[in-house]
Amino acid sequence: MTWTGPIKKIGEYRYEIDPSYQSESMKRLGIKMQVPGLLYADDAMLKSITADDSPDQVANVATLPGIVGKSIAMPDIHHGYGFAIGGVAAFDAQNGIISPGGVGYDINCGVRLLRSSLNFEEIKPKLDKLVDTMFDNIPSGVGSEGRLRLSRSEVDQVLEQGAGWAIHHGYGWDSDLIAMEEGGCIDGGDASLVSDSAKKRGGPQLGTLGAGNHFLEIQRVDAIYDPIAAAAFGITELDQITVMIHTGSRGLGHQVCTDYLELMQRANRKYGLPLVDRELACAPATSQEAQNYFSAMKCGANFAWANRQMIAHWIRESFESVLGRPSTGLGMSLIYDVAHNIAKLETHVIDGKSRLVYVHRKGATRAYGPGHRDVPEAYRKVGQPVLIPGDMGSASYLLVGSEQAMGESFGSSCHGAGRRLSRHAATSAYQPDRVIKGLEQQGIYLRAKSRRVISEEAPGAYKNIDEVIEISHNTGIVHKVARFRPVGVVKG
Amino acid sequence: MVKHYEFVEHTADIAIKAFGDTVEEAFACAAEAMFEIITDEAKIQPLESLTIDAEGIDREALLVSFLSQLIVIHETDNYVLKDFNVTFTGPNQLRASASGELYDPNHHGGGTPIKGVSYHMLEIAEADGPAPASVQVLFDI
After folding, report:
1. Domain range summary for chain A, segments of one domain joined by +
2. Is the dihedral of CA B107, B111, B114, B120 positive or negative?
């Protein structure tokens, strides 16, 4: 479905959907956009964005009650369900709404980056062994279960304590907590608001990678754009080794979303909110339904932080066993950990006034600028690290948030490149052995549980990440700090 | 009997369209398509029988609730299921039976896990003359 509605250029890398726009479905329901839509793109990117109906979804989100500022689309925006992926929307804490669709199924799907004092030459002879050991130590793939058997009350503790629970139980270093969005736990998660099904579905999956686009990567630094910010984040030279983790809240988050989408269908009817799309189902922010979801979502987010924490611990153990040195001596501390799918209660200055809003980031990354008190002290002068993963044959990026983002995008930026081909098309186009060979020729060693995933996740199945990063950088909402190339990859 | 299903092309996820002589049959067929995504349906042995009850605020919500429950059964009790039979027991209620066995990654592996059942693209159509009843549903994977 191609977007044919009005979009006008309002500045460099900025396009706007005027709030006077009313789609057929809006007309039918007699509802209007409350605020404009803002798309970050260049002319070429805009063409690909308007090739699907994601601008329509940006406009639809702008109709929701209590939306403030603009309904925002990052350069990597693509068609989602209700809310587009790559979208940011903030709703007034009193008069706005909260919507599970604005977060998505994989609550706190996110990225974590570990640095090291190793360089590529040092690990090159042992690279295969490192990847094999990570592959063996960290359960991945369909139906994989974690190495832990948690009681129900332990699952509840994970949901309410997040990464802190994992560290308290020996999975990681105390200092890890400082280098995470929200310190790896959002306060106020009430495990009693998470269904038994969710706990039963997700509990055994704590400490697992999953499948699909989730991955573990050993990477080497191949470009440093901002040496000062890079040094603040512990990136000091080319070929320095880093490890990236991309996964989320597994079945637990998926089920929280499923449960509350159903509840919101009922709530929507109760509160009489007209919706252009059922996936936008929501409830008034102050209602019991919305607050219960918000609390359960926090539990899902906390579960994801604990999940990435345990995986990070087993990565350190893998390096220790293969290299025969303690990970503290390998300098494997955490650069940062960010969520890509989340709703947060945050304070932002809107039209000169400080307001409390529920910021929904669906396929978007918090990107706080320098000086913000929620940025770890060690980074506060430069701003919050922003982590953007690429596909297994391209590059991933470390960026930093800016003042511009604080004033314009609720301190948010992009999150990655979307798919170019469907899984089915990728499976037909890319034979697994050829993908493995192609990566090998680039010096990338891959281990995957499923041959199908190798085809589905082939580099050619994804859009170009560099373009997304260039536009994001050029908007000024984030700045490039460093780029990483994968050398070893673990997939589900 | 026109019970069958087909996959609908979608870039990010997987959508299916399922058909039947009645909407009940189309619901059953959508459930079978779902397990074809999760595993290879032909590999499922009908060793045990299960009953599933579902309800929703309307027909669409009923379908989402039914299929969502099957994901929970698959991921928590570890079943893979086939041979669905669906009976509407109220305006927006159903009872379904199915048979299957416990999931064995060595035998049933290689499929795609499903995160959730979306309302996006969701369509339910009664049989109309020569056109069979159908449901279209998109799975977030």
Report:
1. 110-247+300-335+375-491
2. negative
Domain that holds residue B60: 4-140
pTM: 0.96
CATH topology of domain A110-247+300-335+375-491: tRNA-splicing ligase RtcB (3.90.1860)
Q: What is the ipTM of this complex?
A: 0.91
Residues 8..27 of B with a Cβ closer than 8 Å to A: which?
A: 9-12, 14
List B100's β-bridge partners, or say none.
Answer: B48, B81
- A146 pLDDT band (50/70/90 cuts)? confident
**What DSSP letter does each residue of A259-271 carry, written as one string?**
HHHHHHHHHHHHH
Which CATH number is B103's domain given? 3.55.10.10
Q: How many domains does chain B have?
A: 1
Residues of A acting as catalytic residues: 415
| Residue B91 token pair | 């305006």
Among residues 251-270 of chain A, which lie with CB inside 8 Å of chain B? Answer: 251, 254-255, 257-258, 261-262, 265-266, 269
Query: How distant, in Å, are the alpha carbons of A132, A277, B40 from that of B36?
Result: 31, 28, 5
Mean pLDDT of A327-342: 96
B105: contact with A, CB 8 A cutoff:
yes
> Nearest residue on chain A to B111, judged by CA atoms?
A142
Assign 3-class secondary structure to A385-431.
EEEECCCCCCCEEEEEECHHHHHHCCCEECCCCCECCCHHHHHHHCC
